[in-house]
């Protein structure tokens, strides 16, 4: 069942992706107009209206802000950390396989922050979790790319647990919990993009990580109009689609029982 859900999520996302969906609607409208059906003009206008909305308004920022503001970093960094978990999603395993050197994407701060924290907390255990998150992939996993990159950056391979089977956030949480078996009272940091942190915290708590500490990176929003209107159109579209996917993921995970609420609370519920 898990494999079916994974495949469906990847297949359905292609037409449901807002940019793709708007283009599909627009082309359907054009086809209707070509066939002499004037009602198609409303579909064309809806498609153009979506892209105009992204140009005129900072709707991409409005959708991301509640996600990125939900789990801020601790005001004071913990004096002692037992472990650090870095989620995959920041590497391009297919390009790495083709080119032979580690390739990173827009979430690269997950990887650089992992190195910073490893140096700050030299006695902490480190876990990188990421397998084959893409639907079409080669032989290289995200963990393979992380091992290659971090080893070159001076992090001994023996210090890191590379979990290479997880394909999504739910499997990140479950697989890592099985590997690590954290003890009560231990302090573990969770490193992922700020907009991905609500879903990550919800699913990690549900998997048994009751006291995990959020350590967000890769912020893409601000609270000033300069930030709201600074990004070019392609970046705005990308941010909107990422936010849409995160909100969709939060709802889906709640319906599947993988989180306790659509938008997890900042503080974990007390143990019963």
TrEMBL record:
<dbReference type="GO" id="GO:0005886">
    <property type="term" value="C:plasma membrane"/>
</dbReference>
<keyword id="KW-0472">Membrane</keyword>
<dbReference type="GO" id="GO:0000270">
    <property type="term" value="P:peptidoglycan metabolic process"/>
</dbReference>
<feature type="transmembrane region" description="Helical">
    <location>
        <begin position="12"/>
        <end position="33"/>
    </location>
</feature>
<keyword id="KW-0812">Transmembrane</keyword>
<dbReference type="Pfam" id="PF02698">
    <property type="entry name" value="DUF218"/>
</dbReference>
<dbReference type="GO" id="GO:0043164">
    <property type="term" value="P:Gram-negative-bacterium-type cell wall biogenesis"/>
</dbReference>
<feature type="transmembrane region" description="Helical">
    <location>
        <begin position="42"/>
        <end position="64"/>
    </location>
</feature>
<feature type="domain" description="DUF218">
    <location>
        <begin position="82"/>
        <end position="249"/>
    </location>
</feature>
<keyword id="KW-1133">Transmembrane helix</keyword>
<dbReference type="InterPro" id="IPR014729">
    <property type="entry name" value="Rossmann-like_a/b/a_fold"/>
</dbReference>
<protein>
    <submittedName>
        <fullName>YdcF family protein</fullName>
    </submittedName>
</protein>
<dbReference type="InterPro" id="IPR003848">
    <property type="entry name" value="DUF218"/>
</dbReference>
<dbReference type="InterPro" id="IPR051599">
    <property type="entry name" value="Cell_Envelope_Assoc"/>
</dbReference>
């Amino acid at each position: 069942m898990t494999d079916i859900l994974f495949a469906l999520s990847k297949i359905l996302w292609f037409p449901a992706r807002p940019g793709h969906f708007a283009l599909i609607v627009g082309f359907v409208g054009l086809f209707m107009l070509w066939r002499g059906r004037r009602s198609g003009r409303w579909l064309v206008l809806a498609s153009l209206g979506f892209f105009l909305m992204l140009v005129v308004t900072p709707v991409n920022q409005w959708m991301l802000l509640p996600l990125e503001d939900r789990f801020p970093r601790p005001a004071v960094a913990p004096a002692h950390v037992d472990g650090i978990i870095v989620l995959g999603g920041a590497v391009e395993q297919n390009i790495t396989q083709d080119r032979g050197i580690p390739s990173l994407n827009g979430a690269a701060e997950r990887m650089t922050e992992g190195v910073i924290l490893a140096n700050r907390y030299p006695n902490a255990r480190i876990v990188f979790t990421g397998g084959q998150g893409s639907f079409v992939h080669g032989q290289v996993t995200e963990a393979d790319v992380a091992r290659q990159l971090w080893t070159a950056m001076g992090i001994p391979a023996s210090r890191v647990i590379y979990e290479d089977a997880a394909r999504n956030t739910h499997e990140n949480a479950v697989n890592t919990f099985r590997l690590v078996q954290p003890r009560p009272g231990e302090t573990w940091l969770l490193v992922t993009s700020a907009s991905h942190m609500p879903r990550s915290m919800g699913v990690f708590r549900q998997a048994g990580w009751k006291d995990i500490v959020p350590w967000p990176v890769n912020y893409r929003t601000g609270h000033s109009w300069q930030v709201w209107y600074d990004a070019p159109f392609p970046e705005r579209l990308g941010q909107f689609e990422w936010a849409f996917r995160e909100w969709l993921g939060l709802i889906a995970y709640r319906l599947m029982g993988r989180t306790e609420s659509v938008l997890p609370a900042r503080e974990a519920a007390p143990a019963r």
